[in-house]
Amino acid sequence: MDTKKLNRREFLRLGAAAAGGLALAACAPQAAPTQAPAAQQPVPTQPPAPPAAKGVALTYWPSWGNFGPVWDKLRPTDEFKQAIGNNTLEVKTGAPYEAILTAVAAGAPPDACSNYQYLDLMARGVLAPIDDLVKSSTVVKKERYFDGNWNDGFYKNVQYGVSAIEGFLRYGLNYNSKMVQDAGLDPDKPPATWDECLDWHKKLTKIEGTTMKQVGLDPYDAMGGQLAIQDGFYAPVSWGWKWFDAATGKFDVANASMAESLDVMGEFYRIAGPDNMAAMRNVEGQGGWGPSYNASVQAMIIEGYWHPGETVIQKPEVGKLNRTTWGPVPASRKGVKVQGTGGHYVIFFKDSKAVKEMFKIAEFLNSDTACKIIFENVGWLPGLKDFTAKTDPSAYPGLKFYFDSATQATEWSSPARCPITSFASQQYQELREKVFRNQMKAADAAAEFQKRLEDEWTKQGFK
Amino acid sequence: MSIAIPKAIPNAIPKRRFKLSTRTRNLVLGLTFVSPWIIGFLAWTIYPLFSSLYYSFQNYDLLRPPVFIGLGNYVQFFTDKSHTPTVVYNTFYYVLLSAPLGVVSAFLLANLLNANIKGRSFFRALFFFPAIVPAMVTAYVWNFLLNVQYGAVNGALRGVGLSTIPFLTNPQLAKPSLVLIHMWAQGNAMLIFLATLQDVPRSLYEAAIVDGANTWHKFWYITIPMCTPVILFNMIMAFIGGFQNFILPWLLTGGGPNQATEFFTVYLYRNAFVYLRMGFASAMAWLLFITIVFFTVIMLKTSARWVYYGSEAY
Q: Fewer Cβ in 10 A, N or C end of chain B?
């Protein structure tokens, strides 16, 4: 007699079959809902309204961490609602560059992003050209923008970027007037040359034992040491030469000016002590690009126009003490007033299926409403002539200098269009450290810099 | 004369059913249950492994299609005078110092914790704890402890009138500081040693005592030989971990100061995601793999001279 009994093997087999079925059901697309057969449908007296067009889910990755909270104020505006329409917008801030790269490599980038290595992406064909969209736009018009901001959105005569969010002037020596005064210096007579800056630096730097309590100037902090596509490279600006020619692909860093800049700027580190500088940066809340200035540990900083606004917003008691003057130049160029353009863009990925919809968001970011909210909440100005003309230069202490410099500067620069800027930036950091740690002569470092850039240019296939 | 073919009688002959053998059934069932792991292994280990091998022969920047360059990336690594010597020196310095010191410290700690002391369980948990702390937390904590201006360690040194030590900001001290942090996190190795020590037969120690052995003799002639298989295992794991060390140097020092902590993995990461040289980074990854395999084979081959696999003495 064959008694039916569920043994262990049968149980396991049934269990596996059930689990497999559940997995398949979970992975299968949702089945269309079945409709119950209508018994009697009432006859409509009016034709039904057409269904609303289905919106698109847009994704935008601006990398600034402090830009996220601003969207809470941008979204409720009428201009944003008009721009977004039926679509939705997910804004993800703080994503590292590696995330963008892997998303692009996987074929699933966001629809647009800002504050990443624009030229890396433009030069490697992953961005969507927007010439046609710009042509039909009533907002993104060349005449509205400063030349540098407009032109830098192009690569090889194709437009990829809409200048937006942040794009005013780049260079100014900002200083804390109280710290300067406490050191016995006159805040009304700021330094103009590197030598004068060095004198201030010596008086403002305080070292107790082996602890640096206060530093005068870290010349490689923020815009002083930055080498980036949206910001430029200060040493060539200050010493007055062009380090890269986009038309020919030639580098020029193995020269006396580069060597002198490494030596002069390195002297600030030698006086403070390279280990002391590193130790100061290692403290939480004393990092570069402003925190150490906000913490009143750093008295001077070479920064862009955003510094006054950001400092007032982040640390009002320090912001009100801020003053700004011309970025330092070598003594041989005393009297030269340098200034530079630069800025950020909204760029769109080729793999995006919603470039047209995302372009409307970029247009929104160029509206007066959006620019005003960003200026009041973050301290940034767009590269728009009409908006900056309406902005009150005295809104933040030190901001007026940047507005005045627009007409008073005697030398102008804009960031070099170099598609290996990330590599150049890292080599610059490595070599300048070797110079201020006295491991390498400045001239040798400049020559090595030239060699590394040329080798990399060839290896990356840009010959 | 025609032969009448009878009509088929239903159920007279049972239908042939497709039936798997027991062995096959077991195999299918086993594979079904282990399939999630196999799929994950293929998708997230095997596929990336062979992809990186493929890309190591390409000029690939993640954004453009790869271009075949043969052994170009491997040649570039060996001919790059600006970074390769520094990176290789830093990595071997760290591995050759941290691996043996880490194993020794774990072994000594396990011996201490094997003794019959009060609160032994508490101390075992305490010393194991660092092994389960996430690496990012470890980095932040040690950054705070070792900071030359406001760190607790330097605060204590200042308090007793000594000068502060720039552990992480001085090029000469940064690597040894990372070795020190590595020795702090030997909980896993310590636990494995502890388990091994429990397995050492008591009879050996008793026999040694009878023969007049003191504590040092027992430790040197019984404990260590009996633990040599696990010492070998931990040493191999320490070497592998040392070569692959990335999180702490990246978070604590970023490869600095002055490239003092630019290890192989740090330079690899920078090449992949800063310089957009994913092909070169892939080649570096395979060179690292070959190096680790080489060291592992060397240690295994030489282990016969010093590893004792007997479990009973007589």
A: N
